[in-house]
Amino acid sequence: MMGGVILSGTGVFTPPDVVTNEMLVDSYNEHTENWNKEHAAAIEAGELVKRELSTTAFIEKASGIKARYMMEGRGPTEPGRMYPYLSKMAPETNMGTPAQVKMAYEAAMGALEEAGLTGADIDMVIISASVWERFVPSMATELQQMLGAKGFAFDMSMACSSATFGMSTATDAIKSGMANKALVVTAEYLTPLMNYEERDGHFIFGDAAVAMVLEREGETASTTAFRINSRQLKTEFSTNIQAGFGSRVLIEREKIGDPSQRFVQHGRTVFRELLPMVIDLVREHLDEIGKTVEDFKRFWLHQANINMNVFATKKLLGRDPNQEDAPIILDEFANTAGAGCMLAFHMHKADFARGDLGMICSFGASYSIGCFVVERL
Amino acid sequence: MVDVVISGTGLFVPPNKITNEELVAAFNEHVDQYNAENKADIDAGLTAPKQHSSAAFIEKASGIKSRHLVDVEGVMDLNRMMSKMPEGGHGDTENPCLQAHMGIEAGKMALKQAGLEADDIDYLVCSSAVMQRAFPAIGIEVQHHLGTKGSALDMVMGCSSATYGMVTGYNAIKAGLANRVLMVNPEIFSTMINFRDRDSHFIFGDIATAVVLERADMAKGNDLWKITDTKAETRYSNNIRSQYGPMTRLDDDSMLRDDMFFVQEGRKVFKELLPIVTNFITEQLDDLNMQVGDLSRMWLHQANINMNMYAAKKLLGREPTFEEAPTVLGDYGNTAGAGSVVAFHEHRDDLKAGEKGIICSFGAGYSVGSLIVEKL
Lengths: 377, 376
Description:
CATH architecture of one domain in chain A: 3-Layer(aba) Sandwich
Shape of chain A: globular
CATH superfamily of one domain in chain A: Thiolase/Chalcone synthase
Shape of chain B: globular
Largest sheet of chain A: 9 strands, mixed
CATH class of one domain in chain A: Alpha Beta
Largest sheet of chain B: 9 strands, mixed
Helix content of chain A: 25-40%
Radius of gyration of chain B: 21 Å
Order of helices and strands of chain B: EEHHHEHHEHEHEEEEEHEHHHEE
Distance between the termini of chain A: 19 Å
CATH topology of one domain in chain A: Peroxisomal Thiolase, Chain A, domain 1
Number of strands of chain B: 13
Distance between the termini of chain B: 18 Å
Strand order of the largest sheet of chain A: 5-4-6-7-1-8-13-12-11
Largest interface: A-B, 75 and 79 residues
Helix content of chain B: 25-40%
Strand content of chain A: 15-25%
Oligomer: heterodimer
CATH topology of one domain in chain B: Peroxisomal Thiolase, Chain A, domain 1
Structural class of chain A: alpha+beta
CATH class of one domain in chain B: Alpha Beta
Number of helices of chain A: 11
């Protein structure tokens, strides 16, 4: 009818502060030793459990992560505080632009440049991210104004599938004719949700933003575009990955500092429950479009942790994957929630030639899976 | 491309109702307490005394007589005057959280009206001005408890949440991603309000709406409305704003500061937004070669009575009748994204086949969103 929808440009924003495993472990261990000392009596009496120290070797083995970027890295590595300060990009006044919108803007500029467009060419703007820095007015509307974009804008959220679900929503709008050129930005600023006093979770996340321009095939100036050949989404409710933070902290203010309001995950259960769903969905989708894994040059997967990624690709490919088959960016960026698979796509797409096929697949909290088959034009 | 119809709508109204009189009694008691506590400063001219309010002032300013709230106890508690989490509000593995519960109940009603079972639905959009938590998505919790198939997602768009949610569902059906969509719109905006603020404590009510959208050739219901056009526009403005979010914790002094709650510059909104809305609708009708006279009804965003009457009058060129632009503000207050769909839900039964109307939201963002519908 109107030709396919294509991904004509991507862009990335990398936050200013690099925090290595060493930095995190040093502060975590100092903070934890102080905590154990302070609570020695209660620990002795069996009322509290002594907290365990951590090591960089444990983190790297558990996750494949060596460092991460943060919008503000001093707070989480300051014993006694252990949560971020406001970022330098935070709004100076209450009416200022949220840091998340500024992150989105930087990533958007890169994506527009690759697509050969300016903000004024865009007529739909979506910020799709795991958390919203502000609800009203919508952050995407502010980004729309900063870019000089037309049309309409809104925010959406789908945790680790925020980028893929955002692209799917934009694809629908282009196909239905409501939009011509859409900008989707997954600006992930998740570190404020983390509990940096928690050994199993404090190392997982990094901040980053990735932007995607979508438009119609035949209407693009991009020379590096990928067509979206097919897509499939799936969700199934699970509380094994949670972040309680939302408007409910307004009605339970006394709990604002409470660890229950931070990110909480049951990693082993997620591994056991979610991965089979991902494998099944990908196989089902391949059957539906009459392709096999051998038809694909690359799988850009959600970047959760190295063990999940390797397990999934090994299962799909039937052999040990390499960095070509399924690139890993966890070592540098850590888990960037919804941004992971598109960060991997952005960083590892340049060697594609016309006709090469690849698969983008997000999976994670909620649970959600978003799978896109793309072909280099 | 396939045609898309609305085949069912549903409503969930929280049980706690509170009238202007009750709200004002608590507010005035707070004012007296505040003025007594700050008497020395007030007498010295260092602090302005707070002013009493009255039910008459509220009704004149807004057309609102009462509203339903997810929590009344915390709002009426002089030491708190903000919502308090109702028992079981977080939900657990068996029971949905507060916001999901509202969406589920409205969704059930909409499905019933459409003559569908939950498993006929293959895409669920949960859209609201504010979300109770970040993840798992509220929409997926609704999907889980209702038993809808496929996928679900959360989106937010201030006062246009329901219309933008419907448009997102409409696009998914047009694009072939989905056949049948359930849009749920559980609004809990009272939780963002400072009930010690005279200008905003009366505005919002909580409610959930739900709408079933499906491919026209698959629809089985007996009250079908074809969506003949959709349009959306946003223009950034700080005149309706709410600060709270996950970064609140990082700013150590911000937690209970008055400017962190919902704030609005009502007069500016009136002056800036209404021309955008009337131009938007006029343009949409022009593009379709339609006149405003071709519309039997305008289901408008329910902000306040003066805005609604002004917009309808401007479009019609005369005073609207209640039937032409029904208001539901009296009972429910401003229900954020839900207003225009509440009006559509309650005031459409008398229209005949072939009659057309417009569902149009406008508000924070700024945002305007509309669907032109025709009774089949």
